[in-house]
Amino acid sequence: MSRQDPGRVLIVGAGPTGLGAARRLQELGFDDFLVLEAGDTAGGLAQSVVDERGFTWDLGGHVQFSHYTYYDDVLDRALGDEWLWHERESWIWLDGRFVPYPFQNNIHRLAPADRDRALLGLERAAAHAAGAPAAHFADWIQRTFGDGLAELFLVPYNRKVWGVPLDRMGVSWIGERVAVPDLPRIRRNIREDRDDVSWGPNNRFRFPRRGGTGAIWRAVAAHLDAGRLRPGRRVVAVDPAARTVRLADGCTLGWDTLVSTLPIDRLVAATAGLSPGARRAAASLLHSAVHVLGVGLRGAPPAPLARKCWMYFPESSSPYYRVTVFSNYSPHHVPDDGPYYSLMAEVCESPWKPVDGEGLPRVALAAMRRDRLIAPGAEVVSVWHRRLEHGYPTPSLARDEALAVLIPELEARRIFSRGRFGGWKYEVSNQDHSFMQGVELASRLLTGEEEITFPSPAAANSGRFLARAVEA
Of 435, 456, 464, which Cα lies nearest the Cα of 27? Predict the structure, then answer.
């Protein structure tokens, strides 16, 4: 393809998307770019921290699975042999028992009355599958799974995760994110009392041996040429007319092409000269915050947790929607003078779901004991808590219309917004997607090569582009 000249490229944010763009620009031999990172280390929402007691924590329950050979190769080069491989063991805690994930495939584990109610709802939903498309996410759940599964798990769990009324969420994002029911398979599992746990793109995953998820992105950043990454540089204002950004320290930097991985609502607020329509569109986007709570404990985990990866909690008595047994991912997540184990809980906060952040650790610890995650008498040696304002980009009914206004207006000014919150598309917001959004955008800027992941999530998730070569 013919070479294009994007001029000086300024990349805002050194998370997976910004690093993907930077790596690809460098790979293509382009050297007129800088990466500005507000924090002191690369990784964005995929960084890791070590608390004062020596426990390692991610900023949420991240695992690696990939839709792209290019991304796999980057991971291989980043950490070499420093990976641990795991078979996914994810479970739902409901009514005092663990049910394997996906829930709908394992209703034989429920009490007989709940099992029969769930199966009846599935059969009725299947009998009425034809008809008008679902109007919103709540409608889709009812039509796809029926009343039983909706009431037992899907509605309460999704309310806890999203913190948004489900009738304000669209359906175009769902794709591989939710396992749709296979009635013959479910009936077989009931008849044979068989656990069915193999669904999903991450049923086997790898995790860094040391340093948490953040080790990946520190390694990727380390492969950039010296001076390309500038930590501690927070962008506070963007002037498209002057082609400049202003930093928190008052410095001004010029650009010809701006690649922003900021949350797009923050980007719009910081950018001069945008239309009232763009500002209304940004204001219509919804998101939820996430509290990440890490609990380090002395001793071995309770026997039921010995092999579990993460667990979902749909019931209102548990404040968290998910808990990860983070020490099961790597023995190096806990201090050396053990034995220790570690639990990492996630709690959603939104205007519809307020959270008392100050009291959350106390409430969560009490719930962990009730939910049998902490053995009676176990010693809690570390409690770590962080709130992430931008946790989940909500795939609301208004989202696609808002992005259809925002993206063209920004790109007309040579501002390209990509990433988990830069693009606001939850269905392509995992680390592989986010990284490849940056890679594909860089290729487009230099060679004109078509992007796939951001404009066409369904195509990206279909697997058709897994081995797609990224042309040099």
Answer: 435
